[in-house]
Amino acid sequence: QQNIAFFPLYPIIMKVLGQLFGLQNGVATIFPALFFGVASIYAFHALARTRLHENASLFATAAYALYPGATFFVSAYPTSVMNLLVIATLLAFNRKKYFLAAIAAGISTAGGALLVFLSATITLAYANKIMFEKNQQKISGFFQVIFFATLSLFGIIGFMLYQQIAFGNALAFVDVQKAWGYKSIVDRIINLVTLSPIFGGGYGSFFRSIFFLQPTSKSPEGSVEYITNTFSIIMAVYSTWILYKFKEYLLSIYSLLVLLGYIWFIGSVQGPSSTFRLLYIDIPIFIAAGIYFQNSDKKISCLLLLAFSALALLIQISFFASGYWVI
Fold it and tell me: From residue 82, how far is each of 23, 40, 42, 119 by CA, in Å?
């Protein structure tokens, strides 16, 4: 019964491709992830060039492509298609193709719950645009925003309608996750304050993991994942600050919402679970990497961080290919 916790976008893509091209299960499972992953790298470079100089846009693209979460470009996860849809949404919005952006965001919400924050971000930005538009009727503008918001959420709305019809519970995908760990609101707040289980045991574990000193029993892939998750969340926080500092308000709002959503819905319940995968949809943090590179006098520090990320990706792929449990 826990299958309903997984959103339908990627399974639908696998099914359609398998039927259209007669692909075997293994190919139909992996090929879409690889295809959308490569496409997302090209699309990200196009997005980066709208905000950065050429060298900085190339650095940002390298940061995106060499992030540890790219492991899932060769795995049956919706990571790559979700990323591509986030990038497509931001590109379309940047080019003032607002309803195309809403459609892309709407499709993305059928891939994962955290992408409702993308819909919320572009809806707020669109409402702000409508509010200050000259000769705009208030009632007309209100209904435009409502339509835009609905369009940007149609994926998850459709998924919830299906659950209501099939199970009599539109929030079945939320309820089944209680089997993986349930915490009350008070417990979640305590976990946020104490950093436990977000960093697997509080402030001590957090600081030990920074210096690669956090023990994780006899699991080698667990040790690597622990360090990678900690590194990912630190960089996400710092990158969100960079976006705000350089007045990339649309990107900083989305980045902040994804980060807080992850910590609240996942980190405060299950611990540091797949941080580098679940935060990969936070596309703006890689734009922040380009901004940092573009404005830094010490390019060597940027290249060292990029090398660390690439090494973490290589190790993750090695574990994954060897059959270790890396999610």
Answer: 22, 9, 15, 13
